[in-house]
Design a protein that fits this description.
single chain; alpha+beta; Arc Repressor Mutant, subunit A; Nonspecific Lipid-transfer Protein, Chain A; 2 domains; five-stranded mixed beta sheet; 11 helices
């Protein structure tokens, strides 16, 4: 017996669907279009305005960003809301279900970091840095180390807290931080993932460290990258 089709897509729609009951295929129906996952990534640490999303996603056009926001909103992944006065600006924010997608980004990040063709010199944003740290933190290396630090990446400031081997990152300041790192996200990443000494980056004028230097030096060594995959041939 042939099952009746229970879903109906708009006729003439340019969007392609997999027409597959597999949940993984449906996930791609929801966010498989170009830029959709990166829009979700940028909202993972809280709401953003359209202009901020556009600025933080180099290469995306306003038209494509509008389309992705509309499709993700229709899918229930994000919502639009208006901030109260005096801001009165419209922002986009992930729904509770949308926030549940973070493990997807973490799994993809760990897997793709093993790619021999991954280019770490490409643009690297502040949200990417914070999410990568949450992904790559090694509880075994962290042990009982406790850290309450502030990371300043230009227009954004983040509170980075380590306790019990668990790392949390959120927008905001720290009243009495153990240390403060200031610099572009890619420069902080160079210290954390690239093995660049903080002192060398300071001497080059691309990074600034204030506070407990020994603790900061220990902290940046808690994020080991996985080994690169061995390709055939």
């Amino acid at each position: 017996m042939q099952l009746k089709k229970i879903t109906k897509k708009a006729e003439g729609s340019a969007r392609r669907y997999y027409e597959d009951a597999c949940a993984a295929a449906h996930a791609l129906d929801l966010f498989g279009e170009r830029w959709a996952l990166l829009v979700m990534r940028e909202l993972m640490l809280g709401p953003k305005r359209f202009t901020d999303l556009k600025a933080d996603l180099p290469g995306i056009s306003a038209n494509v960003l509008t389309q992705r926001l509309e499709s993700l909103e229709a899918a229930g992944v994000l919502v639009r809301r208006k901030l109260p006065p005096p801001a009165s600006a419209q922002v986009y924010e992930l729904t509770p279900w949308g926030y549940e997608s973070e493990p997807i980004f973490q799994a993809m990040g760990r897997w793709a970091a093993r790619s021999p063709s991954h280019d770490p010199t490409l643009p690297f944003g502040s949200v990417s840095l914070m999410m990568s740290m949450r992904t790559m933190i090694s509880p075994a290396l962290a042990g009982a180390l406790a850290v309450d630090a502030e990371f300043r990446t230009g227009k954004e400031t983040f509170r980075v807290r380590l306790a019990g081997g668990e790392l949390t990152t959120e927008r905001g300041t720290v009243e009495h931080p153990d240390f403060v790192l200031t610099g572009e996200a890619r420069m902080i990443a160079a210290a954390i993932y690239g093995g660049q000494p903080i002192a060398a980056l300071e001497a080059a004028g691309v990074l600034k460290l204030e506070g407990d230097r020994a603790l900061a030096e220990r902290f940046i060594r808690l994020f080991p990258l996985p080994p690169k995959a061995v390709l055939p041939g």
